[in-house]
Amino acid sequence: MKPFDPRLLTHAGAARVFLAGTVLFGLVTTGLVLAQAVLLARILAGAFHGKGVASLASAFVLLLVVVAGRALAAYGAEAMALRAASVVKSQLRRALVRHVLRLGPGWMDAPDERAAEATVSGPGELATLATRGLDSLDAYFARYLPQLVLACLTPLAVLAVVGGADPLSAGVIAATLPLIPIFMILVGLHTRARTERQWTLLQRLGGHFLDVVEGLPTLKVFGRAKAQAEVIREVTGAHRRATMRTLRVAFLSALVLELLSTLAVALVAVEIGLRLLGGGVPYETALLVLLLAPEAYLPLRNVGAQFHASMEGVTAAGRVLDVLDTAAPEERTATGHAPEDASLRLEGVTVRYPGRDRPALADVSLEVGTGERLVVIGPSGGGKSTLLAVILRFVQPVEGRTGFDDVPVAEWRKRLSWVPQDPYLFAGSVADNIRLGDPGADDRAVRHAAELAGADAFIRRLPGGYGTPIGERGSRLSSGERQRIALARAFLRDAPVLLLDEPTAHLDGENAREIRATVERLMAGRTVVLVTHDHTWTGVADRVAEIDDGRLVVHERTREPLAVAS
Predict the structure, then answer these.
(1) Both 410 and 462 in a single domain?
(2) Does one domain contain both 308 and 353?
(3) What φ, ψ does residue 399 adopt, rounded to 5°?
(4) What is the domain-level CATH number for residue 410?
(5) HSE value, Cβ hemisphere, 13 Å, CA-based, for 238
(6) What is the number of domains present in the chain?
(7) By the 8 A CB rule, do 449 and 493 touch?
């Protein structure tokens, strides 16, 4: 583990101010440590030589001021560290959310190499990383980094002062000091893998628990709830055992570091004591060396102790920074298509996923004119969803180019409405879920979109109307009602390009007919790409394409394209 990841300075500006403040407080604390040792040695030596209280009064007052100063410096450093940790966590969370939104759901769902590099394999693990993981940074900022600064400053300052008073003792300290960081490195190499395993198990537990809670109704229906509870119990037990192994190593390493520093201080004490008995060193100098010797080793011991307490936060922050360093779709200045252009063009596009022998799309060329409807049919796994993901720019082709390469990603997605096969509904109100299509839309526009989608009637029957909470993933609605909410989003968005993925899948006959009529209204005046298993949709198409094993074949035009709505 790096003592400090410089990427924090790039992604969290508050870390710069914190580091500067930590160095400043470290300098102040080091100076106060030296002053305290000098004053104590002077007072004790003076008392030993029979000086009265009056002659030592000024030293006593200065010592009290120094002790109070150390307390204030410690308080200020910790308060600043906790504040900095809070700001850094907030900055990292916001940056993480923004970047994951730029990467798109394809980065998380597909076996993409970028997700593998970031060591995040699901929404649950990402949520654990952004919450519990980043919360662990408190120990890193408030405990570990301040001690790291002191470990760099204090031993050098102590060596300088001791060297001026007694070079032999300074030599002993200088010879024994490197032993502690050497053993720290050895222990760190041993615990790194254990800590990473502990964090991986915690991520897996969080992700699996989220998936189980979301699918609990289905598990109960099929009698699999107890089996999943057993899986969670096993993962929890594995995490507990990994945590205990890590703690055991932490305790043993603390014992090793304490033993080393104690032996080193004892060595200094023995040599200075023997020389003091022989009259080879003044009493005040001997006291100064004995008081400063433990201070030389203390910051190094504390770094070793705080290293383990901060490892979880450091590991989590490192993985967040890996995600932030993952290449997102490149933003370019729009030089090609104008915003009103609703055509689509792919030229020799090939998409490959790691671990698969065959490409998901193989040399696909396609052109869909403005206002044209294209229906793409094909079997599961044939490449239909990947085709939509390329148009949505959730997946980057490894070969070929698209007609929208020169359009910024955010600008391009404003031209699209997407109705997926299983639309995601959030645990908010009906109105809030529809308003995702246009966050600035007023209530009247939301109701009008619901009317166009045929959703207004059932929404008004809900207990709270448009303000009714619908539960995570729309658990309080039927499949047909969820699909209508998704279609209402698309109506509200009113984008010129419409992408549809199996719009009537998993619906009964009556619901499928109603949704089909709504979809045909939504298609009017828009460029449409609809992927489906259902061949009956070909009747509404201007052209039909077949895709299988990643290869696309477009058939001749069946009828004239629709006029573009103004």
Answers:
(1) yes
(2) no
(3) -140, 155
(4) 3.40.50.300
(5) 16
(6) 2
(7) no
